[in-house]
From TrEMBL:
Pfam family, one: RskA_N
Compartment list: Cell membrane; Membrane
Name under which the protein is recorded: Regulator of SigK
Organism, scientific name: Streptomyces rubiginosohelvolus
Swiss-Prot/TrEMBL keywords: Cell membrane, Coiled coil, Membrane, Transcription, Transcription regulation, Transmembrane, Transmembrane helix
Top-rank lineage group of the source organism: Bacteria
InterPro entries on file: Anti-sigma-K/W_factor, Anti_sigma_zinc_sf, RskA_C, RskA_N
UniProt entry tagged with the keyword Transmembrane: yes
Signal peptide positions on this chain: none
Residue segments, region Disordered: 223-250
Keyword presence, Transmembrane: yes
Lipid bilayer topology: Single-pass membrane protein
Length: 250
């Protein structure tokens, strides 16, 4: 395996997706390649954070929704040991269970009765499925055989890494040590389409370290930028970029 090929294996190695022979070869390569070592550390840290994403915080309006619907929805009869099929014990099932447990805990904490309410259960299932799909797509980009990475320093000493896969036509941005945006603001990511900025999604304003699957295909974009925007984002940039990064080409 050539050195050029070894440089493309950082994402797959961080996700433990390499066959044993390629893993050994790549680990020998890491001893002499500081750039790949840095990328592996950043990608491994991101993979660990994604592993913790199975626990979801309950929405702020959950208490009001539960208490309001208690008065309109009849409580279901006991299931007598019946188990609902969840399609296996995979990640989706765990996320669904956590979300539903949050509903029950919130109702009990405010003096309510544990309620198995269909609409809340459906909302939790949809949110869990959406989170699973996004994490799966993010992992596919990081582990793609043609994934290419580019890293650089950002404003305030933060560090950013962008991973692009042409076969997936998607990109992932990994941030480390970013300062929180001003109150009422959010970091918004943009594709750079030959000077025209196309929205690629919002970053979590509470996370100094974040992994973001850019919203939409890469297509002909040559890079990305980050601006500070009002909460909820903007249709086009309204401030100077706090970061600009070119997409890797080789």
């Amino acid at each position: 395996m050539s050195t050029a090929e070894l440089h493309t294996l950082t994402g797959a190695y961080a996700l433990h997706a390499l066959p044993e022979s390629e893993q050994r070869a790549f680990e020998r390569h890491l001893e002499d390649c500081e750039a790949c070592s840095q990328e592996v550390r950043e990608l491994s840290a991101t993979a660990a954070r994604l592993g913790l994403a199975v626990a979801e915080s309950s929405p702020r309006d959950l208490r009001e929704r539960v208490l309001r619907e208690i008065t309109t929805v009849r409580q279901e009869a006991p299931a007598h040991g019946r188990r609902e099929r969840t399609g296996g014990r995979g990640r989706t099932g765990r996320w669904y269970a956590y979300a539903l447990a949050a509903c029950v805990a919130a109702a009990a904490a405010f003096g309510g009765v544990a309620v198995w309410q269909n609409q809340l259960a459906q909302d939790a299932r949809q949110e869990a499925n959406q989170a699973q799909r996004q994490n799966e797509q993010l992992a596919q980009v990081l582990s793609a055989s043609d994934a290419k990475t580019s890293s650089g320093e950002l404003t305030g000493g933060a560090r950013g890494t962008v991973v692009v896969s042409q076969s997936q036509n998607r990109a992932v941005f990994l941030a480390s040590g970013m300062a929180p945006p001003p109150s009422g603001k959010v970091y918004q990511i943009w594709f750079n389409d030959e000077g025209t900025m196309r929205s690629a999604g919002l970053m979590d304003p509470k996370a100094s370290d974040d992994a973001v699957l850019l919203d939409g295909p890469v297509d002909q974009a040559s890079g990305m930028g980050i601006t500070v925007e009002p909460a909820g984002g903007s249709a086009e940039p309204t401030s100077d970029p706090v970061a600009l990064m070119d997409f890797p080409t080789a």
